[in-house]
């Protein structure tokens, strides 16, 4: 039926590195991934803890929604996850440092001061 598409060889080890970085067991990781996918895509995905083991052992490859959720939880770019040119030692140093998905800005950048304007506010007639 044709050739299977190439798979990233380091992906299983990187997925395990994310779970280890977060200090989660496989059941916790499955729950967090389900929650993350539900929050960001609106998709409901049942993910059993045994599936996490299959991802980390290379028996299965996670779909894109699961990969994106792993990246968000580990605060790394998806490119870092799937690019085998980024070795595991380098990947571990990037965990938690590449992107802060809670603010959708790079984690190392601090938001600037909020500028307040003292513009007068005009109320429409009939409002309080």
List keywords for this structure.
mainly alpha; 128 residues; 434 Repressor (Amino-terminal Domain); single chain
* Low-pLDDT runs: 103-115
Q: Helix-strand pattern, N to C?
A: HHHHHH
Percentage of residues assigned to helices: 40-55%
**Please, what is the CATH homologous superfamily of the domain at 11-94?**
lambda repressor-like DNA-binding domains
CATH class identity of the domain at 11-94: Mainly Alpha
CATH fold-level name of the domain at 11-94: 434 Repressor (Amino-terminal Domain)
Average pLDDT:
82
Strand proportion: under 5%
Question: What is the strand tally?
Answer: 0
Globally, the shape reads globular
Let me know the largest β-sheet: none
Query: Whole-number radius of gyration?
Result: 20 Å
C-alpha end-to-end distance? 70 Å
Q: Number of helical segments?
A: 6
Which architecture of the domain at 11-94 per CATH? Orthogonal Bundle
Structural class: mainly alpha
Q: Can you put this structure into words, describing what you see?
A:
By secondary structure, the protein is an all-alpha fold. The protein has a domain of 84 residues: lambda repressor-like DNA-binding domains (434 Repressor (Amino-terminal Domain), Orthogonal Bundle), CATH 1.10.260.40. 47% of the residues lie in helices and 0% in strands. The protein contains six helices and no strands. Helix 2 crosses helix 4. The longest helix has 16 residues.
């Amino acid at each position: 039926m044709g050739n299977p598409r190439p798979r990233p060889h380091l992906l299983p080890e990187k997925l395990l590195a994310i779970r280890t970085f977060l200090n989660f067991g496989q059941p916790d990781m499955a729950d967090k991934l389900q929650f993350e996918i539900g929050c960001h895509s609106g998709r409901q995905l049942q993910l059993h803890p045994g599936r996490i083991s299959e991802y980390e052992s290379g028996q299965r490859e996670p779909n894109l929604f699961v990969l994106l959720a792993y990246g968000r939880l580990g605060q790394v770019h998806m490119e870092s996850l799937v690019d085998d040119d980024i070795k595991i030692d380098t990947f571990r140093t990037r965990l938690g440092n590449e992107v802060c998905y809670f603010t959708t800005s790079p984690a190392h950048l601090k938001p600037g001061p909020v500028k307040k304007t003292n513009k007068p506010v005009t109320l429409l007639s009939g409002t309080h």
